[in-house]
## 1
Amino acid sequence: MATKKSTSRKSSGSSRQSTAKKTIGKIENLGKQVVKNSLAQKDPFVDVPTRSISNTQFNKRRRILEMGGNSQRRNLFNLGQAKKFMQTVLLSEGCRDLIKADKTLSLRGMFYKSLHTIAGTNEKTFGDQGESDTILEDLEVTLDTLREDLHVFAKKRGTMVGNITVIDNGDRIDCRRMGTGGYAIPSICEPNVLKFDKCEAKFVLHVEKDTVWSRFNEDRFWETHNCILTEGSGQPPRGVRRLLNRLHNELNLPIYCLLDCDPWGHYIYSVIKQGSMNLAYESRRMAVPEAKYIGIRSDDYERCDLSDDVKIQLNDRDIERAKQIANYPWFADRKDWQKEIKRLLSNGFKMEVESLITKDISYVSEVYVPERLKKKDFLD
Amino acid sequence: MTPTATPTRPRSGAKMSKDKKSKSTTRKRASAEQMASSQREISVSEFFAKNRHLLGFDNPRKAMLTTVKEAVDNALDACEEGGILPEIHVGVLQLSETRFKITIRDNGPGIVRQQIENIFGKLLYGSKFHRMKMSRGQQGIGISAAGMYGLMTTGQPVLIVSKTKKNKPSHEVVLKIDTTKNRPVVVSETEHPEDDKLFPEGHGTQVAIELEGKYQKGRQSIDEYIEQTAIANPHARFEYVTPSNETIEVPRAMDELPPDPIEIKPHPKGIELGTLIQMLERTKSTQLGAFFKNEFCRVGPRVAKEICKKAKLTDRTWIKNVGHDDAEALYDAIQDVRIMAPPTNCLVPIGSKGLLAGLLKEVKAEFFSVASRSPAVYRGNPFLIEVGIAYGGKLSSEESSRILRFANRVPLLYQQSACSSFKAVVETGWKNYGLQQPRGSLPVGPLVILIHMASVWVPFTSESKEAIADYDEIRKEMKLAIQECGRKLGTYLRRRQKMKRESERRSVFERYIGEIASSCEAITGTSSKKVYDALLEQSQRKTAEADQQLDDEGRIVEENGRLGKDENVIILDDLEQEPAADVIGDLFSSTGTTTKKRKKASSGTRKASSKKKKVVKKVVKKRTVRKKN
């Protein structure tokens, strides 16, 4: 490693300072390599690990998705890659600036930071935010670092409430006293930002979306059952997944998921449990292989004696997706899941969590979930 | 039709009303004798007078084109047979709105006085039908039918002037056709003095036909016909006076006559049973062995013996003893015996050089490629396919491509989609060669495809000779030739595409280098100028190829690619400044002595390409258009 002249300025902790130093070192290495190749009249490149299903492996022992060893070389002197190469270098510079200034920016902020018109042309460095988002994810894997360490965060999504107190960037937050809105789960849930304080909760109930979460919160479910209630607004963002992972690993809390009975709900469960393909390199920090699936189950239509009105016809895409999911290796060896998906397909309809409201407004929080928990009736 | 046995039986409504009209309840009966009185022979001319669409006289516009075509075909045939470089004058004079006078004059050997009326006044009279020799005309219908059409639409007879030798007078014959008897009627004849100004060379024929017609430029016009004839006959010179009194001169592209085709005898595998029986009846030979040897090609004593043996006869069998069953056995035997393919020296292709010259002269494109197949056989008739492709340049890229079809050097302008060549083009996968092609149709792009079929007998779909019949053997040969040209076009297009990408690449790279250099400075502290210069140098080196190709004339130049050495391919890189004439000259000058490099717009860094076009013997003048007063 070459000489490092960068020094991290004032910082809250020494660990934080050292990660910053390490990340800057990685960025500088990338820059030096590009300069070295350029001066040597070689085609400059960066090797970007491939983030696709082909380069994703399922680790059977750990039961999580992991990234394979494939990477793709991104050259400057290749017509299809030239612009991406330029964008990669540009965003490296941007991240280095951020870390040096010890500030964080959202993905959108990062897009604006590196956005300008290329001198002498009408072309902008980025067409839209989507371009810079993917390059940032590329950069993350290329540098073998985390987005959080690059000081970039995504728009926050997801809420938490329950018998726990956390310390967020030095502020003590009592999640028992969050009113109707709840505590917004930050995008970065690393230990240097978010610390756990006092926790009496015995488990975590994660629900798919805000509406169901509100139902539980209003019924004070977390109080009566002594738990933490989280919500991820559909597919949970990194922050929520990282939080669930930490709650499980650091506080030994089991995670239960209440999701819709359709392929999309199943896949949310899959992402929480095994990690996602796009962020396979983060699975170790995010996945909770022990997470359990409470419902909604395909046989709940008869079990709970629901009315015909809650049925939503499966469309072609649903059917195709369900078959795809059934074939994922981490579902393939789960007999219960195979049965569940088969039943969903033979039913020919899907159900949302809200369908339980047809029984009674609080049926879900007062009957459905408590019964399932009591009987330990989950899918794994 | 024989009358029905029960005349009172009720018939269909239409018939009933007809019967009522004739005011009779029973149908009138005609006896066989009565019918016989109205049964008589139909002469060919009568038949074709009624069915003139069969000969290409469907409408006034087409009739005029067919007239010109038949006359020019005859003129070219005559000149070539006489070993004379053709000089053809075509005059279209507008007499009134719908009336035209067509005059065609050639410098051929002329026609002896006695034959004039037969050739021009009798349908199915000619020298070309009975022989197996490659020629434009086949049946001996065309020109007399044109005269008949003129006579029928305007009442005016045909006027023929012909001169055979310098010191002999020329004959002028005014001719009508008696259609009922298919017989010529000479209206008047005059003898002109020896120094006829019409024929400066001392020999030639002129025919003038007045007819009802319509003149329109564009596709399927006389103009197009002449243009295409010039492509396929680069050795002929044309002078065309249009109805608006403009004279268009089409000079020769080559000074060599094509070799005279050799006449061949029929091939045994090409005849049918009926023909065989007829030939047996007519032959002068007395024994089977001699019959086969004398009447067919490719049959020697050994093959003749083998055929006879297979038919359980011998080569000594007397022909008069050969019955119908024997003939059938002989016919079957012929199919079984291996016989050498017919000789192919009877075919005279236009040739690669001739095709290239013709295309260069008439098509303003940038890429030319030709392919000539070796002869093949269909139904015992030898034939040969030649294909030429012209691409790019000033051709329109929006429309689908154009096919120029030729049979024995005669352009075919009608019924494209019925033609074997059209099917061959459609069946070729043009996408492989970098062109767009909607399913089941012609490729789209600035493309002209020339297809020529040379054969002793071209199988037309009709007497008007508009489309080549779709024999599998023919279509296969056409496709192979098209593919050969197509592959070269594909190579050229891919190369061109690559060049384009290279140049695009350069601008793209240079655009991003600045950004990269300044980011690198921010990250590593290395001077951005240093990185920028290094990257720029590299970028320029990477695109050096494109630089070299483009900075000369701003267009793509083939230098040392495979195509550059291919003598069946010509690539023009500057259409604006340079008439193609120069290149045509180069084509025929491999033996020339003077060397002259191809002129260049700029004397840039261009290298070896001019070596390809070596020598210029003769510069062909550009096509000129001048106004007659």
## 2
Amino acid sequence: MVELVQEKDIYRSAFARLEAESNPVGGSALIALRTQAMARFAELGFPTLRHEDWRYTNVARIAKTEFRSAVDCSVDLDERAIVAETFPEAQFHRLVFVNGFFARDLSSQHGLPKGVQVGSLAETLDDDPSWVERHLARYASYQDHAFTALNTALMEDGAFVYVPKGVIVEQPIHLLYVTMPGVEPIVVHPRNLIIADEASQVTIIESYVGLGEGVYFTNTVTEISVGEGAVVDHYKVQRETTQAYHVGTTQLYQRRSSTASSHIISIGGDIVRNDINAVLDGEGCDCTLNGLYVPAGKQHVDNHLRVEHRKPHGNSREHFKGILDDSARGVFTGRIIVHKDAQKTDAKQTNRNLLLSDNASVDTKPQLEIFANDVKCTHGATIGQLDKDAMFYLRARGISADAARSLLVFAFAGESIAKIKPQPVRAQVQQILLERLPQGDQLQGLS
Amino acid sequence: MVSSTEQTPMSSETDATLDRWQSEEYKYGFYTDIETDSLPPGLSEDVVRLISAKKDEPDWLLQWRLKAYRHWLTMTEPTWQNVHYEPIDYQKIIYYSAPKQAKDRPQSLDDVDPKLLETYEKLGIPLQERAILAGVAVDAVFDSVSVATTFKEKLGEIGIIFCPFSEAVHDHPELVQQYLGSVVPHNDNFFAALNSAVFSDGSFVYIPKGVKCPMDLSTYFRINAISTGQFERTLIVAEEGSTVSYLEGCTAPMRDEHQLHAAVVELIALDDATIKYSTIQNWYPGDKDGKGGIYNFVTKRAKCLGRNSHISWTQVETGAAITWKYPGCILIGDNSVGEFYSVALTNNHQQADTGTKMIHIGKNTRSNVVSKGISAGFGQNTYRGLIKITKSAHGARNYTQCDSMLIGDKCGAHTFPYIEVKNSTAQMEHEATTSKIGEDQLFYCNQRGISTEDAVSMIVNGFCKEVFRELPMEFAVEAQKLLEVSLEGSVG
């Protein structure tokens, strides 16, 4: 227990520093929120394997590391270093955060429709603290999740997107989080708030990248509120370094007849945990959660999904695919909860895993909790290896073993990648995957 | 209960039949008054010693019981399960109760207390007739002491041992000592530890090398006498190349008090052996308000120890207020096969949290899981299963299917599978669906002159067919009948 107290102490001092600020961001409402979240975190502590939601993911290494709060070092960042991470400026609005701080010089936006706000969350809360009361932490509950509580207590900045009623933002908004670790391990707590009002449309892409050597920890929370009839597409491409810990929550809250999708692509990271929660709190909602994780080496990727159908006539589709090589470990938990009133729900969940190595392992928990009787709910999970017949077919045609294997792996991932709508993002994910595959260069242009 | 905003557009006839079924009374509720030789309620080391002494057990078994009891004291009751019940007061349970006649055991059916036989009659188990006509040897357990064993001699001729557990302790101590607790150790879990400390009796089966048991072995467990928790212990050992099919079925008298049933079943299959274990469980489920009923907290586990061994669990769970068990297989031998087929039905306020555990350790081990859950009334039905493929299980294969059916809008169906794979040559598939009886299906049947009741019965029986098919003939008939009784008034 003594140890546990010390673990929390690091964050307590960070919290004390924030509390002591003479001109706090977000006013008294945010201070109150932070205080409550910090108290909750102190109660919860870091989860252990005895915690059902964390039984396959050990975060002891995160808990034991003495992380320092990150400092703003965007001036040290050469713009050329992140060129590869960005998308064409003409087609995307871009917000860049370096070590969690908004980097205005690296960001760009042009021709946003009237009334649309895209910018730093800290600045927005400074200008109008009422956003805190109305939206902040209203969707992502920190009651049962220690990391969300920690983020809520210690958040400094992140993206804020507001799309008013009936407005369509045609160009996707790209949120790029760059972390530059130093000698000492650092922690960043990006916090994003995305609000799409009635009948609006917006596409959000979150990218997480690490530059340089060093241990760091990204603890991110994104809250997305989807108004009546609104359409929100969300993408998260996580490419941290292999020394990084990444814990992220994506919270979708959907109102009547809205359509939302979230695509979680996990490529980097040492220990990675994604919580994707969707609440369908209106009739006729449509929710798609799509995922791809490709850990290798000693990487550990945990995707934890929870889809809650609260009202009738909701559709949800979950499709997560994993390709695991070396000693990688994949964890999947998918939970569909259908409340008593949510009749005519149609929920489907699939988790497919490809084990490429004898040391790789997968733990999967697809779960259904159903309290309504007129529903269609299915889940399926498979774990297997590459089809021997398909391998033989390719080998018989003179394709090398490596290339054949890569081709089949690429095809397996193809289904998930094809669901990514913005072409530059799709091409980027494809490229990353091909670079990881042996003789992947031979597959260029296949897609 | 809040009604749903969108009422399911079911015909009023269906509603009526559903109501009728949901209020269906337990048919097998009666109580036979037999003077019992009971201990006062409560549990202590003395009680454990007394049980052991009453059964005239050897010292090693007493020590084993005590070890289990001492360990049990250090354990806390689990709380992770998806069932809810009033806390059990373990000091209010009577841990030993035997019919008076226990002292001079009946040698044949004629010696058996006629009142007992009457009980069986009421249950529709004509012991004698069944034994002779159906070729079933019945080792009937009435409360805690076995009172009748049939066909024992006939089985004895080919070397099969089929006897009450307490008898096996005296006659075949070396076998019991070798295998007791080898699958479910005395400290396995809270209820298994409790059972190990106070188990009353049960069945012991030993099939020698190369012997195919010529008949299905069968035991009827019953709970009688107020507040007697029954702690059965079953041990089946199938030697190399042997085959046995074991049936277990139960009904219990109606009463108001909750009763605890914490049994332990251990199966061991050696090289090329096959064990088929079938259960029909129809204990008193409590009345329609959820009062009374039996707690069925059972630990059942099988060990496929030998190469090419095969163990299959089949269960039809329609009774008990709470059913909480996970019959599992540990597949150690190469090429061994584990199977699990289950139908679990919850009506009124019944709760079930059941499923299976398949642990693949040997090479090319295979497991097949088919689970059908039916929830009606306020019933809550949970499938919870673990498929674990360890690193050594090269070429392991699993197929799991769990389907749930919901009848009425106040019940719940839940699925919590755990799948852990550590070997890249393993193949694992899991599928689950949840649905209700299609209105179009009912309409189709109605249109052809089949009443809603018959139609629902037909559909539910079809839904469970994959499991019923696995039951031995006699049981398959009984299972269908049982489902019909349980679903009577609406769902066949």
## 3
Amino acid sequence: MSQLQPAFGLSKRSATTAALPAAKPAVQVAKLIDVSKCIGCKACQVACMEWNDLRQDIEENVGVYENPHDLSPNAWTLMRFTEWENPERGQLEWLIRKDGCMHCQDPGCLKACPAPGAIVQYSNGIVDFISANCIGCGYCVKGCPFNSPRISTADNKAYKCTLCSDRVAVGQGPACAKACPTKAITFGTKDDMKKLAAERVEDLKERGYSKAGLYDPPGVQGTHVMYVLHHLDKPALYAGLAENPRISPLVEVWKGAGKYAGLALLGITAAFGVVHHLLAGANRVTEEDEENAEKLRGGGA
Amino acid sequence: MNVQFSRRQFLKGTGAGVAGSAIGAFGFGGAEVALAQAAQAFKLSKATETRNTCPYCSVSCGMILYSRGDVKKGEKAEIFHIEGDVDNPVNRGTLCPKGAGALDFIHSKQRVTRPMHRKPGSDKFEPVTWDFAMERIAKLMKEDRDANFVEKTRDGVTVNRWPTMGFLAGCATSNEAGWLTWKAVRGLGIVAVDNQARI
Amino acid sequence: MTNSWTDIKNADVVLIMGGNAAEAHPCGFKWVTEAKHHNKARLIVVDPRFTRSASVSDFYCPIRAGTDTAYLLGVINYLLTNDKIHREYVANYTDVSLIVKEGFSFDEQEGVFSGFNANNRSYNRDTWDYEIGPDGFVVRDTTLQHPRSVYQLLKKHASRYTPEMVERICGSPKEKFLKVCEMISSTANGEKSMTIMYALGWTQHSYGSQTIRTAGMLQLLLGNIGVPGGGVNALRGHSNVQGLTDIGLLSQSTPGYLGQPRESEPTFAAHMANRNFRPLMQNSISFWQNYKKFYVSLLKSMYGTNATAENDFGYEWLPKLDKVYDTLQMFELVYQGQIKGFVCQGFNPLLSVPNKAKLIEGLSKLKFLVSIDPLETDTVKFWQNHGEANPVDPSKIQTEVFMLPATCFAEDEGSFTNSSRTINWRWKAAEGPGESRNDISIVAELFLRIRDLYQKEGGKAPDPIMKVDWSYKDPKLPTADELMREINGKALVDIPDPADATKTLYKAGQQIASFAQLRDDGSTSSACWIYTGAYTERGNMTARRDNSDPSGKYVYGNWGFAWPANRRIVYNRASADPSGKAWSERKSYITWNGKAWGGADVPDYPPPLAPERNAGPFIMNAEGVARFFARKMMNEGPFPEHYEPFESPVANVLHPKMSTNPAARVFKADGAAFGTSKDFPYVATTYRLTEHFHWWTKTSKLNAITQPEFFVEISPELAKEKNITNGQWVRVSSNRGSAKGKVVISKRISSLMIDGKKVHHVGMPIHYGFIGETKKAVGVNSLTPFVGDANTNTPEYKAFLVNIEPLSGPVTS
């Protein structure tokens, strides 16, 4: 598997200091999670487990709605529930946030990772774990400002949301976004998602949420998973969402791992065959399809 | 009706989960597609698709059942993935946690795979043949009908009812099975017939 | 649903009450979030719990479980006293101007309507009707001043439900109630519309039908029936509960909601004599006058060539009811040992019917039990010991049990009818596992085997069985296609065109396109008249997959087939004013163009009938208008009234002597099993969680992962009072049994002041039992009372009394 990793085209690759060949300026993608539309139904959790063939052990009820109780190697996304009495509105609010990897533009996990090519960032922004290269050291967990990755005790490798890179690669959105009954989760280019978020923020403000806004934290150069929050001024309300996430200074320690750089150039030839198959295969998108998609822009549902 | 994989239909429906966008593979450079696919191959590329409807609630979400093998071609088919049908105007490709998990109902450990029989007083089910089960149930039903069927009331009014047999019809079966069931149970004279409408 | 799922997007206000669409129908609920996003709609949730629906609402108002009728009557009183009604709609499209018979009354002290007999708790309903004039039509007073006009009677009836009274009964703070009233009243103008979405939170009470009527009345006052974004929308349960109800699998009905014959009508003539559909107003259409055509066509489908005019089309062979055998009645008879054999076809009554202890006792008395199901159910294993969760001794249970493997949805083809009456065809993707067979083949073989036994051995009354038409290509395996054609109906002889006798409308054997063409002389068949049009000469209309929306009003008329007549919003003539113009441009839907009715949908009106005919938009009613006054059609009164649940923490403040529904049916032993607030001080309610579907998905690992175990929800206040900590084991008990579970302490569970007394709620999800992937549980129906609604006999699952005690032992073991 490791031989299939090409060094070109990636914007970032773990434990690799050699300059990566410049990728074409790429379209940035993002998943937008509109917390104000989320009903906490867990369709995203189930769709994620179903698509990725994950089944973890059945737990118990421990007095909360979070099941599983935490993110795990077999649960890459999780609804977190918080009850909050809003003093301004005089109403109870049940704040429900879909937790999981935020796909930081400046990914702390990748920076922390000492295994060459175990963590990559594609030029569209998706941060992916390449299990074949993972050594299970757990530094990615420490490096993550959002506490997303989990190490499996079964195979000693790190797991987290891939943003369904396999689906995105063939033009489909992530499984969670596809399933989401209320369209609280949408997926597209980061620009489009920002436009949609602006529309939603305006709607929330009109409904009295004066501090509504888009969570796209600059401390990690923005994220490819963003939230529309009714209370952008209080992200911690949402089950402890980081106020100002940034990569731990400790992570800088790992950045000097230049000794692995030579490995970066392996595998180009092997990759070519796969690429050729995919480009020539049945799933290619035609220009006409793209035009159709273009027509739908802004057309809602 | 199995449908061909239709990119156009997919894109039409992407409004449900993917905002309108002019890009195909969402910003991936060609080689990156290879990498993503190497990390996890797209698992639907050779699947057969069948349109169906979610069996749970009354929204009737359109579903696409992905199988290896095609029953229409006489092949053995194994369903391995389920996704919402983007063409369906109601669910637009979405599914709730129940529908999104329907694969685990189809392959549940609690699926019954052969007729089972529990003798009076026994503490277990034992497998039997369909023939045995059908013959025995038909006999039990006829015995009871012969013993308890009311053709006429004491006043001589013809009522043709069988009051000692109960039948609860499940509401996840089709209209067609429902109609045939109505024909059968009312034909036999059963009056204690109900469904899940009240429950 | 009067409207459709997608139509919810047209709403300006959405009221979710007696339901929790976000939780139970998430993909339908998307049309609420779409309405909010794209239509600036406001969502109101009124519920004892701050639900998942409430979590995305604009306004939430708490309410004590079981007091929704009082709340809605309070809103009606607000609209009437503040003159916030859609006057022209109400005046022209409802019965407000009709005069009620002298002698009708309501006794506010006693809490009963005229005609009540206290000795046997029943009503003589003779006075519950209109005054009929010498011309044979109802007397009217269009000034609405007559003291016996429906308007004046309604106004007086509702006047007791002041905001203060609502607060006393429901515990809903007055200012929150008034805020809800204000939001609702913003739609009383034809410019805006409100939709109401409800489910079992309204039906599962001893007075549920009346609560739903009240909602209908509210919508009529606002002019919200028949318009886009309006309606009273019942969110049904199972995927095909709508279809199976349409197709007649209910004790009291036939396919298409015709009456199952009763003992009092042993002949077809007697049956028809009980059904007088004479128009009550000069111009009204009274569409049910076609009843006989539908009935005869059904009998032709049932008995084929055996049904002739001479033998009343076989009416005699149909079983005649001596009473309604609803689920509660059925299990009462099982419990009494009167029902000996039982078939569950995809049904798990051991967990879904109230009072589990009674059910176990009853099932143990059966001679035989058959389950036809893709899954093992708790019911089919009722005799198996599962420790605390099912403490039975198999050796003492003599019931013979069969568990027959059925295929599931993915392994069979056919159609489901969704909540908004749309019939969708589904295709088969795989064979079922092992030896499983589809329901059609199991039912067919069982029927044919019994029929063969009668043929060979003879027996009692073989005729009704022998005369059933079973002329399918393969009698042992009729196809879904064949059966849908039969349901739709066909011409049995050449049928001339009524407009031109020289032409033939249908050749013998052709599929009928519209129920308007069915006939009462035996020349047409149709198993279910409301489904006529679903499978015509053009093909299987339920399989249509054109998702275009030509009007842009979220009307998908070429997708599947919606009964009746492919109509997506019923009563849609009311979307136009009396002259046929839209009430407003925004809400334009069906209008009169000078020659015909038309628009975004199939008109619910004869297309060429001019507005000047003034036939009234509610053509199914003999009055042609909608009813505030239900006449004799409801068992407990022509107007809704607040009654307490059979187990309630307080007496009815309006009429303590008649606290509960005087017309509800209570079986003797069950009456004795009611508890009082002395021993059981808390109001319990049961509900669904979004992660599970009834008692079904507990067999699906993915769903078990997301909600693995039964739990009990209480407020922090009650937790403090009872010294209970989060995650601790508790025992909840009612006068019928108890259930053990972990506690979830949540501010979402309300504790309310009811008439000066603090009342706490205890909430419990229903989904758990002893079979499946989830943790074993005894089932909440160990607690619930065996009493049902006075009209539908739906069990009172939503409000009853319990106590709760902490159990020792580790917190979250």
